[in-house]
Design a protein that fits this description.
Blueprint lengths: L1 H50 L2 H18 L8 E3 L10 E4 L5 E5 L5 H7 L4 H23 L14 E4 L3 H10 L2 H8 L2 E4 L1 H51 L1
Parallel strand pairs: 3-4, 4-5
Antiparallel strand pairs: 1-2, 2-3
């Protein structure tokens, strides 16, 4: 009996040791997870503070647009121009099109009331914030339409792009007020989310490349025609020389 008890105690001691080791590892993992959660919370707070500034939101939108343009292989100073100073009545981005044409885009967007809408569970407050957000969107569209972003006489195309820096916000606008799209189009303003901007700019970039290719092909055809003309003159000279010989 003593031998059986000793063996059982040895087995129990081994199990307790393994349990203690597992508990220590679990404690370490819990501490690591707690630290990561704390870091994530700090990052979230920093992001919230950053996005509370309209200027910071504009810079955030500009960075997103630049990432999309870099992904498409577009170069600043060649394919597009970026406003280097804050404020003013200048577009944030200007795309260079064939024949000296330009397409302007604004990336600033009012999202304060949208954030307030998400931060509350009070239905009455949500309704107020939602209505105010949609009002802000329409007001921003009107403000863009009142600027000189559309100036065909000055070399721009007859529409302008308005960048919405979030797919959720873009979807929320269309679900909450589908008429906003038509309202913006009436003022020749195209609302673009990151995905739709990628599609629009990709199409623009391809059109510019095709135009450049057509121009180059036209130049080559002209050079070939000039070469054919000179070749005919050369053959005439050779024929005259042959007759004289």
């Amino acid at each position: 009996k003593k031998e059986l008890i000793d063996n059982s105690l040895k087995t129990i001691a081994t199990s307790v040791k393994q349990l203690n080791e597992g508990t220590a590892r679990l404690h370490g993992q819990v501490e690591h997870s707690a630290k990561r959660i704390e870091n994530l919370s700090d990052t979230t707070d920093q992001l919230r503070r950053i996005l509370s500034s309209s200027q910071a939101r504009g810079q955030w939108g500009e960075r997103m647009v630049e990432d999309i343009l870099n992904l498409l292989g577009m170069l600043e100073g060649k394919n597009y121009e970026k406003q280097s100073t804050e404020g003013g009545d200048r577009p944030d981005f200007t795309f260079n099109l064939p024949k000296g044409k330009r397409l302007n885009m604004d990336v600033k967007f009012p999202i304060t009331h949208y954030e307030n809408y998400l931060s509350t569970e009070d239905k009455a407050v949500q309704a107020v914030e939602k209505k105010q957000f949609l009002t802000d969107v329409r007001g921003h569209v009107k403000a863009i339409a009142g600027r000189s972003y559309i100036d065909p006489a000055g070399g721009t195309v007859d529409y302008v792009l308005l960048f919405i820096p979030n797919e959720s916000i873009y979807a929320f606008i269309h679900q909450s007020d589908p008429a906003i799209l038509d309202f913006a189009l009436e003022k020749r303003i195209i609302l673009c989310s990151p995905i739709t901007l990628y599609a629009v700019v990709s199409l623009i970039h391809q059109a510019v490349s095709n135009f450049a290719m057509e121009e180059r092909a036209g130049e080559i055809m002209k050079l070939l025609a000039d070469f054919q003309k000179q070749w005919d003159l050369f053959k005439g000279v050779l024929e005259t020389m042959g007759k004289r010989i």
